[in-house]
Amino acid sequence: MRLKLLALLLLATLPAQAADSELLANLDALYAKRGDAATVKELEDALKKAMEAAPNDYALVWRTARIRQWEADGAMDSKLKRVLGRQTWDLGERALKLAPDRVEGHYYAAAGIGAYSQAVGVMKALGEGLEGKFNERLDAALRIDPTFARGSPWLAKGRYHYELPWPKRDLGKSAAFYEKAIAKFPEMLRANYYLAETLLKDGKAKQAREAIQKVKQGSTAFDPPEGQRIQEWAKKVEADIEEELK
User: Fold this and answer.
1) pLDDT by residue (tens digit) across 62-109?
2) Superfamily (CATH H level) for 21-145
3) Residues 55, 97: contact at Cβ < 8 Å?
4) How confident is the model at residue 12 (pLDDT cuts 50, 70, 90)?
5) Contact between residue 28 and residue 43 where contact means Cβ atoms under 8 Å apart
């Protein structure tokens, strides 16, 4: 009887059946086309169905966090960004608890905190004590694999140093993290886009112009939705740079 009870307890603690490789490949293929709203809806529906069958599957949890982070990143409405950021954060937390030695959960938890903080305002986020939580998760991602998603942990750390208010802001450190990403992944347009903003804020408009030109002239083939988003955002930064250089 005791052995039977033990077996039942062990079964209860086992994760649900893992998603198969074909399903994951299909989910990744949909994510690669996330520039289309209908495809995003299809991806969300597929993830929801898969998660209902396997709610503790790490691969599904972090992939759900990934699409939420993409949506939070592009959200212009602060209320929507706050909601999506919180969802990304929560999903990242679930993922890192399922596999604390993997980078994805730590990174998406940090990215979610970052989006949430942008939505509520950096000063309020600092007042809520989110800086420590953000850095704890992001630093874990940096230790595990700073090259994840074409150096996204480096970019997040660079953005952290950029967005902090004075006197905590450190534009030199911000630029250094972007340069690490650019050296490893020169195709990553976001790195040069962020670098251009940092250089402009640091009074280096000519260098910022060089960085933004790399964004304008760069190929989007590595990730069309990402590249197209960044090239669109770059238009305003370019205008700000040219205004500064007048």
Assistant:
1) 999 999 999 999 999 999 999 999 999 999 999 999 999 999 999 999
2) Tetratricopeptide repeat domain (1.25.40.10)
3) no
4) very low
5) no
Output 129 or 192, whichever has higher pLDDT. Answer: 192
Token code pair at residue 13: 């603690």
Total residue count of the chain as it appears in this document: 246
DSSP string, 44-83: HHHHHHHHHH-TT-HHHHHHHHHHHHHHHHH--SHHHHHH
State the Cα–Cα distance between residues 77 and 72, nearest whole angstrom: 10
Cβ partners under 8 Å of residue 226, min gap 6: 189, 190, 220
Sign of the dihedral defined by the CA atoms of residues 157, 190, 226, 239, in that order: positive
Contact 72/56 with Cβ under 8 angstroms?
no
Match 């850095």 to its residue by tokens: 135
Q: What are the tokens at 34?
A: 């996330």
The pLDDT tens digits of the residues spanning 197-239 come to 999 999 999 999 999 999 999 999 999 999 999 999 999 999 9
Q: What does the block give as tokens for 180?
A: 């690490």
pTM of the model: 0.91
- To the nearest 5 percent, what fractions of the chain are helix, strand and coil? 80, 0, 20
* CATH number for domain 157-246, candidates 1.25.40, 3.30.1460, 3.30.160, 2.60.40: 1.25.40
